[in-house]
Structure formats: C-alpha cells, structure tokens
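User: Please predict the structure of the protein below. I'd like the answer in structure-token form so I can feed it into my own downstream comparison script.

Assistant: Understood. Taking the following sequence of 497 residues as input:
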Amino acid sequence: MSTLTALARARAVASAVAQPISTVRHVHVSDRPLVLIPLALAGEASAPLAAMVGDDPGSARLLVVAQPRNRDQRFAFAAGLATVILGYIDTFRSAVEDASSGADREPRQRFADAPQVLVPNRAGIGFVRLLGRSTRFRRSDGEYAVDPAVPVLGRWLTFLAERAEYPGSCLLLAATEALALHWASGQSPVEDLNLAALLGWVDPPSGMTGPEAAAAAEDPLTCPPAGPATDPTFDNEVLAPLIAACARADGDAAAHRAEASLRAALSGQLTPTWKLMWRAVGLLRGLPPGGRVAPRWDADKDAFTGYVTYLGEGGPPQPRRDSAVAAARRLDWLERAQAGYAIQRALDDPLVMAEYRMTGEAFAGTVTAAEPGRIDGTGRRRKLRPLITVTTEDPVRIEAGTVLSTPGRPGQKALVVSVYAGRPARVVLELSGGMGRALIPVPGSVPEVGDRLCYTALSDSYQRSWPFPAREQTPWTHGGPPPEYVPADEDASEVWS
C-alpha cells in the first residue's frame, strides 16, 4: 500500500465514505460488457454450481447444475455457457478497422472492438482459468464426447484468463480490483474483496454511512457472497437439501419441481451480486477515461484479433505448462508491462504522480523565469533551445543532465541544466522539441512565467525486450528443446480441476 493510499484510507475512516485516489479512469469500460457471476460447489475444485451471465442489466441468464458431481450435467452447463459467451464474442468479429504498423509499413486490419467480460472479484478470474483448463482439451467425438462448443469455450476462457495477468488489460476484469484502483475505502484490502462491502464504502445508500453500508453487506441473507464461493449456512440449510431432492426426484414432474426450487434459491443468491455489478459499471463510467486507456484497449483489440486468427488457422489448445523459453518470455513481457502500466497511470493522473513526487522522481512547481527565444549556436547549425526556471517545494532528487518530460507536453523534452536544492528548490531546464521547426517558437509551445507544471524522469516509451533463444535452442539446463505438441487421448482425461 502506498503512502497516499494509506492516507486516503485514514481519511475514509474519518469521513465515513471512500476517498478518490485517482482523478481519471484507468480501465476501459465497454459499452456492452458481459457480466459473469459464477458459483462453485464447496469442497469441489472448480465444480460449477451455477452462473448468472448476460450483457443487459435487465436480461440475465441463469445456468444451474442440479447435480454438480455429475459429469454429464457439468458439461451440459459448459455447453450452455459456451452458447452465451461464444455468441457474445462472435458479435465483435464483424467490424474491422485499420491500425498503424509503424513507419514505412502498410496499415494492418484488426477488429474495431473486443469483448469485455466482467466478474465480481479475483476469485472469479481464478474460476474462469480453471474452467478453461478443464474444458479446452475435451473431445467432441469418441469416448466421453462433449458438445463441440465446449473445447472452444475452454480455449477462449484460457485466453481471457491469461490476458487478465497482463497489467492494464481489460478483456477480463474483476469489479473489486477496478473499484479499488480508483477509491480507497476505510476497511482492509482483504475486506475490499467483498464487492458489496466495497460498494458500501464507495456508494453508500441514502441515509447510511460507508461503515454502516459495509456492515450491512456482511449479512449473507441480504448480500450473499459474490461468488464463486457460497455461504456455508446457505450450503448446509438450503443448498444441500435441494440438491438431495433433485437426486431423489422420481418422475419428470417431481424432477421439474425440485430443479425449479433449486433455480429459485440460486437465483436469490446471484441476483443481488448481478445488481451490484451493474452499479459498479455505472460508477466506473462516471469517471473520465485517462489519456492512455484507449491505446491500452487497442492492444487488447490486437490480442483479440490475433487469437481469432490463431484459432482460424487451426492452432492447438494452450499447453498445460509453458516451455522454458515461453515462460521466460512471458515473465519478461509481464514485468515490462507492469512497469509501463505504472508509469502510464502516473502520466495520466496527478494523484498517482504525487507518489513519484514524494520520492523525488518527479516535481511540480511554478515557472519563475523563461527565455523563450534562446538560441544554441554550438554545433553545425543554430537550434532553438529555450530555458525556463521552475521553483518547487517538492524534494528534487534529479541530477543535472537528466532528460525530463511533462505530461501536458508529451512531445517536448527538458534537459536539467542545474538544480538548486534549497527550500524552495529551483530547477533550470533546457527545452527541445514540440516548438515548431523555426528559430521562433510556436505561440504557447514554451511555458510562460506563472505556469504550473510537473516534470518527471518517467517515460512510457517502447523498451526493447531482452533477446531469448529460439524454442529449439532451449539450453540443456532448462530441459533442452521441448517436444512438439501432439494431441493424445490423455488430454481429455484431465480431471475437472
């Protein structure tokens, strides 16, 4: 937890309402997200019990497994879920757009939008991952055949779960994480995993404080757990007798009545969370998006387009485990993405940038002197190099010779000429770029005396990846070259978990 977040939590306790820790929205929220609320049977790893799913707040589809330990009913549930999710995904495969491929390259095409699946919490993402692993190797023919859509669903769920590990990706998003990224509650981060309690702090009902709303959300009768776990009391007193009744039912009429009772009970467990999810969507939509949210969503659209192409070309299911080289590449990819995402959020949001100002990696101050027409006569040709002096109360731990930038002027660089580290500190900066091609700067391109700016050494520019060996050149210390994947009957025998 950062210092400012800790301060915001303390202020939330004092004011009895969650405090904003961002000025903009750092996640993409689709115009038509698909909300998925899964429930799993207690004591059975990834055994689906029910799911409420849909892309319309007024039209939720409830899928129920009357006998969660019955293999055929499990895969019938997966087939029903595949109908909804794959149908939703297919709606994004019609419209395309041109995307830049870099300088001197022909534009490429990608899908104009991508699907977005919202789950209540991080545990919901874990359920998606396990369900994908349990279904992507299944066969649609031979012994234990399943509906042809089931293995396709497994591949898509695995893709979404893997993409969810990528910092800044929003193809699969947990509502609690998205809310906690923008508001600090007066409870612990563990308690923030409860969607109802977190929303109680962020958006308490009229006449209630945040703590009161969060306390009320702890009552499983009015706010059942947001999945995939169920309340133990509900399991023992309601769910177990209903499942037993479904198992004992003799005849179609009795089975229908028993299953109807089970569906009604599970609907009562899921409907409150369904409403909370759409409340969370509305709160997030109420924040203005950050400037770098759209480029990150473009990266998600590229990933979606690439996976559609991969499936269309007959690519095999994702392996159970990455090879040594693939794992190393993925770790490097995730580490660089995490660093870049943190910097992008800071460049978009003054509240996030404040953390870097506290550590001396950035400073904000007022321009107290400026030489907008200064010309550098050294070298072969004369260059426009204005000087400005920024006076700041922030601690400055940036040395002369460092190149800085300011979020409001992304095309302009500032070289630190000198630093007077007093209180207040004075930093002399030499500017380059973003001022036109002439020796007279474009009006407004050079900060004027009295302007308040923030300068930082942070940069979200492209960083080249470390070179890794080819797959067939995996060193013997890491097991040597891995064998090529060959589909086998053992794939379909993997346990559900």
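That's the full token string. The CA atoms of residues 402 and 416 lie 5 Å apart.
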